Amino acid sequence: VSATDRGLAYGDGVFRTFIAHHGVAQHWSMQYAKLAADCTRLGITAPAASTLEAEIRQVCTSEPECVVKIVVTSAEAERGYRRGGGVPTRIIMTAAVPKHAAEYRQSGVRVRTCHLRLAHQPALAGIKHLNRLENVLARAEWDDAQIAEGILLDADEHAIGGTMTNLFVVTQNRLATPHLDRCGVAGVTRDRIIAAATRNDIACEVRAVTMKELRRADELFLVNSVVGIWPVQSLDGNPMPVGPVTKRLQRCLDEETDAQVA
Amino acid sequence: VSATDRGLAYGDGVFRTFIAHHGVAQHWSMQYAKLAADCTRLGITAPAASTLEAEIRQVCTSEPECVVKIVVTSAEAERGYRRGGGVPTRIIMTAAVPKHAAEYRQSGVRVRTCHLRLAHQPALAGIKHLNRLENVLARAEWDDAQIAEGILLDADEHAIGGTMTNLFVVTQNRLATPHLDRCGVAGVTRDRIIAAATRNDIACEVRAVTMKELRRADELFLVNSVVGIWPVQSLDGNPMPVGPVTKRLQRCLDEETDAQVA
Questions:
Q1: Which helix (H) or strand (E) holds A161?
Q2: Which of A151, A203, A213, B154 is surrounded by the fewest CB atoms within 10 Å?
Q3: Which residues of A72-103 are buried (b: 16+ CB within 10 A; e: fewer)?
């Protein structure tokens, strides 16, 4: 990547991370739709879906299953914040599927509450953009390998999500997930959970979620497109059950993915 | 630069931009102090001053005067927000000194107020980090080459600075500049102006500044380490005088720089 790329200079770009099987991205139409929508919000011309599909196939040739990360930046450019209208840069990378993922899906993860508070920036909220210093600083708050994820609150002390996951709360068989119109990243798996809940007659609200609700919840879980659904087994040292709604939604998502792969 | 560099992936790094004469950075001790302090706040090990000095000399060999940009990122790394403790990446780039700078210093610049509001993030405020999407989006609000800079307000409607400059207001021969403890970038030239004002018995306050004050000010000026002091000749189409305090401070800074170069 060029040292003058605006992705490096300013974080002027977006990304998505997901699993690919034999060169085919899981839930690609949703991933691409999010990537393109994020580009549009930032004023970047999204690459064509077909171009990215071909490039994903190419980087995944030898791997039956891998993590793919797509980065799209606004362009290489001259110095200065003004965009010059160059061609967006595409970067497609692969990585191994994390080893812990399967175990965590079953027994759940230990999580902590982060000290850092997410800033409210409606112009960037929901977008999976490259300005991720808040996530980096939050992740740097702990070094205990037993803690898999940290919960981020915003400036109003509302829960927004994990450093790399979206968050769901189950209370009396009803789901809630934080709205992301002032901060946070709106992931594909979050949308899939909301859709799966609706299909399965589980009420699901998108709204402000307090820490008090998290502590009193019947179940908590964290989601992203690489790990799927991680039940929370403890929050700040307080044990939580891996409950029936979480397990049911895990099965729904697995069936959906299996159907797509098959 | 590696596609896995954390500077690209997350904007996990800092930068400084300044003028160098024959390979020697202007006001280097201040530039380095800021760079090192910003690294420390982000938890990045700052490169040694001597290493950077040698590299600046090297990239500037053939140029009597040029713009130098230093970028320091936390490291190349594996996927994920967690830092792995790799060696920070150093990037040193040069560019030509912008042509408009001298003319604008004399006759002043036309500026507009941006629509985007800066988010409050005390953990990042003041740092010249690589998460600059707010600046990019603000700069994308206008395309009129006659407008040299845009004023950014924060979520409380206080003026913070330009997209690439710090801001000073002159009212009844007193200076004020926005405090930057919730957003904005604290530049070296801002510090130099505050020091020069003190030396010249000009009162200078660091505090909240409203748009109303800007509109009613006797003089306004914008500063950074590449352009020096730009007087504002119009704000949102309303003419403003290029006044005596601005001119006096321009002379102070020029004398200081000349003394250093000589």
A1: strand A158-162
A2: A203
A3: bbbbbbebbbbbeeeebbebbbbbeeeeeeee
Please answer yes or no on whether A7 and B2 come within 8 Å at the CB atom: no
> Residues in chain B, how many?
262
pLDDT tens, residue by residue, A164-181 = 999 999 999 999 999 999
| Separation of alpha carbons A194 and A175, rounded Å | 9
Report the SS3 class of residue B139: helix
Diameter of chain B by CA atoms? 55
Closest of B63, B146, B137, B53 to residue B104, by C-alpha = B146
pLDDT (tens digit per residue) in B46-75: 999 999 999 999 999 888 999 999 999 999
Q: How far apart are CA B193 and CA B165, in angstroms?
A: 13
Q: What is the pLDDT of residues B158-203, one digit of tens each?
A: 999 999 999 999 999 999 999 999 999 999 999 999 999 999 999 9
B172 sits in which H/E element: none
pLDDT digits (tens, 9 = 90+) for B110-155: 999 999 999 999 999 999 999 999 999 999 999 999 999 999 999 9
Choose the mutation target among B41, B133, B226 for the interface with A, i.e. most A CBs under 10 Å. B133
Q: Which residues of A touch B9 (CB under 8 A)?
A: 15, 71, 130, 132
Judging contacts by C-beta atoms under 8 Å, the chain A residues touching residue B70 are: none
**What are φ and ψ of residue A230, in 5° steps?**
-105, 115
CA gap B202, B242 in Å, rounded: 17
Residue A45 per-residue DSSP state: P
Q: Which residues contact A153 (CB under 8 A, 6 or more apart)?
A: A113, A114, A117, A118, A159, A160, A211
**Are B3 and A7 an interchain contact pair (Cβ–Cβ within 8 Å)?**
no
Q: Left, alpha or beta for B172 (phi > 0: left; psi -120 to 50: alpha)?
A: left
Alpha carbon distances (Å) from B129 to A152, A169, B132, B186: 21, 34, 7, 11
**Which of B159, B169, B177 lies closest to B112 in space, CA to CA?**
B159
Q: Burial level of B128, CB count in 10 A (0-12/13-18/19+)? A: middle
Beta bridge partners of B147: B110
3-state secondary structure of A233: strand
Q: pTM of this prediction?
A: 0.97
What does B99-136 look like in DSSP terms, one character per residue?
A: TTHHHHHHH-EEEEEEEEEE---TTTTB--BS--HHHH
ipTM tops the 0.90 cut: yes
Q: Is B148 exposed, middle or buried (0-12, 13-18, 19+ CB in 10 A)?
A: buried
Q: Helix H segments across chain A?
A: 6-10, 28-42, 49-59, 101-107, 133-139, 188-199, 211-216, 244-261
